[in-house]
Amino acid sequence: MNVSKIDLNLFVVFDAVYTTRNLTRASEILCITQPAVSNALARLRDMFNDPLFVRTGNTMTPTPVAKNAIGPAREALRLLQTSVSANQHFDPATAEITFSFSMADLYEAGIFPRLYPLLSGNAPSVRLTNFKIPREEVPSALAKGQLDFSVDGPAFHDEADICRYLFAQDRYVLAARRNHPSVRSTIELEEFLSLDHVGLLQDREQPDQVEIAMERLDRRRNTLIHCNHLLTIPGLLMKSDLVACVPYHFCKHFDLHWCELPFETPLLEYTLYWHLSADQDPSHRWMREQLINAVQGMRATVNLPR
């Protein structure tokens, strides 16, 4: 193969088809016509002397040759992008840019109120948007540039081209209204189980850490209300004798009493995900720095109940 005759644009098409498994979607991402994608794929097939993708229904399934080639191809594109981006300068004071996130409101409530004060004075035209999409669609959305970041637990998105960073932690505490008749500075397990609870149910297939701890103890809470949104819970607690297990760094922003749980739960971990292709982008790196600075105080340390 004569390297001097290789068209690097072909590998951009190769990456798009591999990511989307669909010629039409690849053409939409690249803003070119589908015949242009088909033509580029034909040239790639000649170059590799392999079909690279075979049609299975509406899906383009990669061949073993394509699977072996995608890693080096993406690394070459990344190195090229890095070299081009190295001299680019990002000025947050003048930049007009929107960063898109996908995260549940549990994470949104912990991050955005801390992040915005860092941006409001130094980056007045930087905007943030958050929309929740199914976890299985996140890697593709990051690869396509539809998302800049996802925030989730540590056990998701283990693809090789997805970067990740554990940047904050929290723990669950028991929250109730002030002067609650049964919640004081400490609480025993039996008293905890006797209370009426509000639960957070954001994913039927992924129970929260409190439910996992209850299952390990082979005990059940008396949960009267299951909420889909974390921000609903403080209003319910302040107007009733209901209690709820919520993240400490969320609870402390409301006029609520809290105490430590009478059992251990795994930590709530905030993991930031982004696509490898954006790793060296100056604006992307700047936003990651702001996110890390915003939540640097969010650690799962134990404080005296109040």
From TrEMBL:
The keyword Transcription applies. SUPFAM superfamilies: Periplasmic binding protein-like II, Winged helix' DNA-binding domain. GO terms for molecular function: DNA binding; DNA-binding transcription factor activity. InterPro entries: LysR-type_TF (IPR050389), LysR_HTH_N (IPR000847), LysR_subst-bd (IPR005119), WH-like_DNA-bd_sf (IPR036388), WH_DNA-bd_sf (IPR036390), YidZ_PBP2 (IPR037402). Residues 6-63 form the HTH lysR-type domain. It holds the Pfam family HTH_1. Keywords: DNA-binding, Transcription, Transcription regulation. Belongs to the LysR transcriptional regulatory family. This is Transcriptional regulator. It comes from Marinobacter nauticus. The lineage of its organism: Bacteria, Pseudomonadati, Pseudomonadota, Gammaproteobacteria, Pseudomonadales.
